[in-house]
Amino acid sequence: MRKRQFETERLFFSYWLESDSALADELWGDEHVTQFIAKNGRFSKDQVLQRLHTEIQSQKDFGYQYWPLFLKQTETFIGCCGLHAYDLNTQTAELGFHLLPSAWGRGFAEEAARGVINFAESKTDLAFLFAGHHPDNRASKKLLEKLGFQFQANTYYEPTGLEHPSYLLKLTSVS
Q: Could you state, in order of their start, the residue ranges of all structural domains in the chain?
């Protein structure tokens, strides 16, 4: 039984653990998942492990990470969604989500992102959330706009070597 950080209607968010290398590899070792987040479309085994360690360290440093996501009913791992520190001076974190292909098209990304936005508003002192997406990822563009993110600019994203559309969401807990 995994420790639960918080829940939505169908999902629960847990914490990445050092022992989660198989889950990390299932997610970030899948070229369908990494096609929009890695320069050559995939991560090496070392990059997958580095990603896992980055998530664990983010939780220690900031109290959030791209938390692993599980279906509440079956405890099936489906991906991750959460926050990374982005600009501490403006109290901005980055919202991100990576789902396994088996979870695509079922509304999980929106449900998870709304859960993370609620977490950011109720459990942090963040003022804004930043998000970006690969220019060819139309599903992410559509979801960010549905969530209320406002387009800001195209921003160079080093991991892909491309200009990514970038968005900002002002959190409602901010006056």
A: 6-170
Closest by Cα among 169, 153, 73 to 117: 169
Model confidence at 175, pLDDT cuts 50, 70, 90, reads very low
Segment 68-112, tens digit of pLDDT? 999 999 999 999 999 999 999 999 999 999 999 999 999 999 999
Give the integer Cα–Cα distance in Å for 123 and 117.
10
- Sequence-distant (6+) residues with CB within 8 A of 143 are 109, 110, 113
Give how far the C-alpha of residue 140 lies from the chain's centroid of Cα atoms, to the nearest Å: 11
For 6-170, which CATH superfamily applies? Gcn5-related N-acetyltransferase (GNAT) (3.40.630.30)
